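Why this split exists: single-chain examples teach little about how molecules sit against one another. For that reason, every record in the complexes split bundles all components of an assembly together and asks for one structure covering all of them. Below is a record exactly as it appears in the raw files.
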Amino acid sequence: MNTATKSNYPLTYDNGKPRKTVGQIVSYIVLVLWAIISVFPVYWMLTFSLKTNEEIFGENVIGLPKYWVWENYTRAMNTGNMPLYFLNSVIVAVSTIIITLLASVMATYAITRLDWKGRKSMNKFFMLGLTIPIHASIVPLYTTLAKIKMLNSYFALILPYSAFSLAMGILISIGFMGDIPYDLDEACFLDGCGVWGTFMRVIAPLMMPAVATVGIYTFLQCWNELMFANVFISKDSLKTLPVGVQALSGQYTTDWGPIGAALSIATIPTLLVYVFLSKQIQDSFIAGAVKG
Amino acid sequence: MRRPFSYKLNIFLFLLPALILFIGVLIAPIIMSGYYSLTEWNGLTTPQFIGLANYKELFTSKSINIMRALKNAMLLALLSTCIQLPFALWLALKLSKKPRGERVFLSVYFMPVLISTVVIGQLWIKIYNPDYGVLNLLLRSLGLESWTHVWLGDKNTALWAAFVPILWQYVGYHMLLMYAGIKGVPPELNEAALIDGCTEGQVNWYIIIPYIRPILRVSVIFAVTGSLKSFDLIYVLTNGGPNHATEVPSTLMINLLFLRNRYGMGSTIAVMLIILCFVFAIIINAIFKEDKGR
């Protein structure tokens, strides 16, 4: 997928050589316009999160803030349980990532490196997970969690999130594990490491790139998830950011600055991850779709 | 070679965490959903088996009105396939020709995919705000006062207003898939065609688009099944209102489950959605295969 070629086709935009036709200029303008449309809501959010209502509502709708009202952020952090929502999201995301990684790298090892009948079917079985919508399990999960008194707990989110990230985790891990030479396994095996020794000493350390890709993908899925978080958690102190922010926005409809700040607080971690790891993030999305 | 028992045990142990999660959270609940869909159940008493009565009620009940929800979801699927995907393909084709700032465009177009739908929904609610939203402000500043609307509150505009952010958010996703596909087209193919005197448009149409057909298939499947399942943005923007104008199957399902405590009927909608997604995936696969034969 990533075989970006260096050759220039005769009819490309050609790095500034003066052969641009009107059509090419028009399409470039459309590209720029769509970039502005793509980025505008986020730009608007970040700027109005630092403005007073007077500016937002008329004086200065889309410009940069004249006075930077950082107070909006302190107010957002002090209203509702914003710091708590943030913490909950971090706890849920980190635990989900750890469980998903562990389960998917272990399963991948058994599917691709250990020799047994039925490993191909096992792989297909797990890949079913790529197509199963979360609707399929919402009622049974809700009623079962209610029965065992596990609604309103971190586990009510961590376990489903891990399970729904699993197929993708395995899919990505298989790709990465294929790049580890079998010689290494064999050498370690001959040295007397058992199956577990090989896994811990050879496979696990060399799977670090997969860990990054799976981790990022899982993070994005559970950081933004709404349906489960909305249904399984009703206690305010356990809400994750999407649900918490949704509740806050409903309560403070007229004070846009602090709401903007709350929305920004929920978004900035994702944006930061994206700025530093945009290539890996894009690759993980491509990997999932091409196979799925 | 006969493997020792401990080897088999180890295989099992390696698979165990994944199997527990997968069966416990995905497979068993699907089977349970299938059963619940055949029962009348308020979540407290034991489920009463009533056969296919829920399915019958679902498609005949005026108060549930599943047809309106399905019609809305199908409209979204249609818009997605006929507007969003062609536009994404156009962007991908243009970007693959290496315009200045290719990487920046790519990253910017994809960014909305990563942002929480709650945040995107809240932002669009503010964009659509009748008094202070940028959309109406823009229209007023252009002297088009009469074009302004209470976008999400008016049942004539709400559906379209709710669809725009959904389509907007995922253009970048489809663009990225197609772009990756185009990058995989062997450059010799392009060059040969160009030397033979094909125009850029002809190369796109006769070489690149047929080549990335498997990716287009995936995109169409995602667009259609995604539309059928759509929930997040509709829930945040309108929650099915005003007066049920923007109801989709998922919002109906959630409302039946948690406002009316109809767990049986909620499961019926869930099962219907899964079957529909499955059927559409098969149909789309068949269409793409058949075309290839020609």
